[in-house]
Specification:
By secondary structure, this protein is an alpha/beta fold. The protein contains 31 helices and ten strands.
């Protein structure tokens, strides 16, 4: 009855007001008499009018901008993904995406589409939006700089950093002497041109370098600390120099630029001694809060915008103001983490690709259409590499680094990436760099960034030392277990399982906890804090278990490969990885467990473990697990965790002779953990196999009442509910699912072992 009344009321109100509006509009037509009202008539059909309206809407500036953003993000993410797959920073792929969408590829082969997507009148909107992205990005870069590291390592770092600036700066000015006459734009003084060539040669991409250091696992080594500090000092020095160079270029002469430099000095002092203490007081008030209120966020963001505005009107570019604001943000991990999380996704995913494409639209590879021009490009690349690579390496060697570390520092400092493009675009906007020189320098930036990874690999090959250091205590152990965890709960379950294998042999055994994070999810400024938070619950659990634990942390671009690589180099006897209940989804087990009603071919289930499958829908494993299984050459245990707390009762199904190796792990559980093992003899496989039967008899003689044999007919009601875990071989897991046994409905946690 209530619903009927509501329906009547709804129909009455909406119908009545619709009728009233129609009556008013009809009466309103009479008001047009005597007024110059243009009747909207057309000879076109209604469909023709619709098409005309649609075409008009497509040409609207907002529609064009939104289409540009959609296209740019899709293409940039695609190219970034490709370059990550080949071991390169994704920023290279995004830069390539910009060049691809520009006149060098799309504009050349699909000019009509390019003109439709990037009409000349729309480029202004794209440029301003990309500049907002750069301002936010430079704000993040300033926050990621750890100025405390500079204080602690200033001696060696400043020498290496300044040498890595002065040397290429001088070579860049020298190169400009030979190319100024032919390539400098008309009306540009030699001083302006040479200074920009010098600063472009001496820049280092701190964000890309920091990611590479994390991915290589050297961030906690002396080398990693030095190179991060060098890059931070380089960034600060280079941006101060860039501000001075911009001031000189805009002022026209060095003397007149002194006024701009003086104003910039006043600005820096104000930021350090007025704004920084003010922000510090605000930060202290909200340091322990997980979230900041909107007024507090507004204060910090308003400071960023005002700072950028001031540096823009002073004449040293808005990006310097953004960088400076980030650098003086309160040195409080929680505050910086919140702002980076708020700003970085928008800047990196949405706005920065616009900058790459805008740069690509300016980069015309077709201009370099002569062997002579490619020769000049080659000279620019050579001068850039010699200046930055050789200059940094020689300075590092001079302050006492060995040749391997010196060359590695040189290779890393030679990384230019996005920061180089920022400098080049500033020079292009100021009219200091011509289109030809701009294109040559973009090619140089790509080449020097791309060569970083291969150069480090070559250095490591010749000097025969790996980047990730395996702790020394591992090599002295007889039995070593590596547990690789993604979250704390899985990590604690894996640790309890590992402890069950070595509890009474701790002096001769080692358990190592490994946590790998994707490098673009970890920031250099809070790396130690992130590592501490990650391992804290695991270390607390190890104290409860009285289990000594070694930890390895690394940020990477390829988690699966690094797990396999560390397992081999550490010579681990068993690698344990964890999965949740979602492992059952899409399989027969999913059906009987009530998680899903879908049924998957068991052959595909096995293929997922062995890494031989094609592209299957509804796979019970994610791609990461499949890759870990296929790449890991050491014995691998996959724990399907259903809240594993203890390992006191374990049953082991035996399907055939290939399961004999499970007796070794059963023995370890019995000896170290007093675990009771129940062997489930499938189709009399134990009685028909001398090796397995003999192993079980030996265990029964050594450990009375700790191991027993049953068949499926002896499985009493509630048997599975009394078990803590099932331990099974990879091949038998396939057979078990294939058999569709009814007792699988009550299955406990499962440890699947691939020998």
């Amino acid at each position: 009855m209530r619903k009927f009344k509501n329906g009547i009321f709804y129909i009455g109100v909406t119908g009545g007001f619709i009728a009233l509006m129609f009556w008013i509009v009809t009466k309103g037509k009479s008001l047009e008499i005597g007024r110059d009202v243009i009747a909207k008539t057309s000879n076109d059909t209604f469909f023709g009018q619709f098409i005309n309206s649609l075409v008009h809407n497509l040409k609207h500036p907002l529609a064009i901008l939104l289409l540009q953003i959609i296209t740019i993000i899709i293409v940039a993410r695609f190219f970034g993904w490709i370059f990550r797959k080949i071991g390169q920073p994704s920023v290279i792929g995004e830069i390539i995406a910009g060049i691809f969408l520009g006149p060098s590829v799309v504009g050349m082969y699909m000019p009509e589409y390019s003109a439709m997507l990037f009409p000349t009148e729309s480029l202004g909107n794209l440029q301003f939006l990309s500049q907002i992205g750069l301002i936010l990005f430079m704000f993040v870069i300033g926050m990621e700089l750890d100025l405390k590291v500079l204080k602690n390592k200033a001696n060696e770092a400043v020498v290496i950093s300044h040498a890595s600036i002065v040397f290429p700066f001088a070579l860049g000015i020298g190169l400009s002497y030979f190319i100024y006459h032919k390539f400098a734009p008309q009306g540009v003084e030699f001083l302006s041109f040479s200074l920009f060539m010098g600063i472009a040669m001496s820049i280092t991409a701190f964000p890309v370098l920091a990611r590479i250091v994390q991915e290589r696992g050297i961030h906690k080594t002396k080398l990693g600390t030095i190179v991060i500090t060098c890059a931070a000092a380089d960034d600060i020095t280079a941006w101060c120099l860039l501000a001075a160079v911009i001031a000189i270029v805009k002022a026209g002469t060095f003397m007149s630029s002194l006024y701009i430099i003086l104003l910039a000095t006043v600005y820096v002092l104000m930021m350090l001694f007025v704004v920084k203490p003010f922000l510090k007081k605000i930060g202290d008030l909200y340091a322990k809060r997980d979230n900041l209120s909107k007024p507090v966020v507004a204060i910090f963001l308003l400071t960023l915008i005002i700072s950028s505005y001031l540096t823009e009107i002073i004449g040293i570019h808005a990006l310097f103001g953004a960088f400076m604001t980030g650098a003086i943000m309160p040195d409080i991990i929680n505050i910086r983490k919140i702002f980076i999380e708020k700003v970085e996704d928008v800047a990196l995913i949405l706005l920065l690709p616009l900058f790459f494409v805008f740069t690509g639209l300016r980069t015309q590879i077709g201009l370099i259409n002569d062997p002579y021009l490619w020769k000049i490009t080659g000279w620019i690349i050579l001068v850039a590499v010699v200046g930055k690579f050789v200059g940094s390496a020689l300075a590092a060697r001079f302050v006492g680094q060995n040749w391997r570390d010196s060359l590695t520092i040189g290779a890393l400092m030679n990384t230019r990436g996005l920061m180089e493009l920022v400098v080049l675009n500033i020079g292009y906007d100021l009219g200091v760099l011509s289109a030809e020189v701009f294109t040559m320098m973009v090619i140089m930036a790509l080449f020097t960034t791309f060569m970083t990874g291969p150069a480090i690999d070559i250095i490591n090959y010749f000097f025969k030392r790996r980047e990730v250091i395996i702790p020394k205590e591992i090599s002295n152990s007889n039995f070593k277990i590596l547990i690789s965890f993604g979250n704390n709960e899985k990590g604690k379950s894996l640790l309890r399982l590992a402890n069950s294998f070595v509890k009474k042999q701790k002096e001769n055994c080692n358990v190592t906890a490994l946590h790998l994070s994707l490098s673009d999810e970890v920031h250099s400024y809070n790396l130690e804090e992130y590592e501490k938070e990650t391992f804290e619950p695991i270390l607390e659990e190890s104290e409860v278990l009285n289990q000594k634990l070694t930890t390895i942390f690394k940020s990477t671009i390829d988690i699966e490969t690094d797990i396999a690589d560390i397992a081999v180099r550490g010579e681990y006897d068993l690698v344990l990885v964890g999965l949740g209940k979602s492992i059952f989804e899409g399989s027969f087990l999913g059906k009987v467990l009530g998680f899903t009603t879908r049924l998957i071919n068991p052959d595909r289930l096995l293929d997922k473990f062995t890494g031989k499958e094609g592209l299957f829908v509804n796979s019970p494993f994610d791609d990461r697990t499949r890759l870990v299984i296929s790449k890991t050459k050491k014995p691998l245990g996959i724990l399907i965790d259903k809240d594993l707390v203890k390992v006191e009762n374990v049953f082991v199904p035996i399907f055939g002779s290939e399961d004999a190796f499970l007796m070794e792990y059963s023995q370890k559980l019995i000896y170290n953990n007093d675990t009771k093992i129940t062997i489930l003899d499938i189709n009399n496989q134990v009685k028909n196999n001398f090796v397995i039967e003999n192993s079980i008899s030996s265990l029964q003689n050594s450990f009375t009442n700790k191991i027993s044999i049953i068949d499926e007919s002896q499985m009493k009601a509630g048997f599975l509910l009394q078990q803590d875990m099932m331990m099974i071989s990879l091949e038998s897991w396939k057979n078990l699912v294939d058999s569709e046994s009814v007792w699988l409905s009550n299955i406990p946690s499962v440890l699947i072992i691939k020998p």
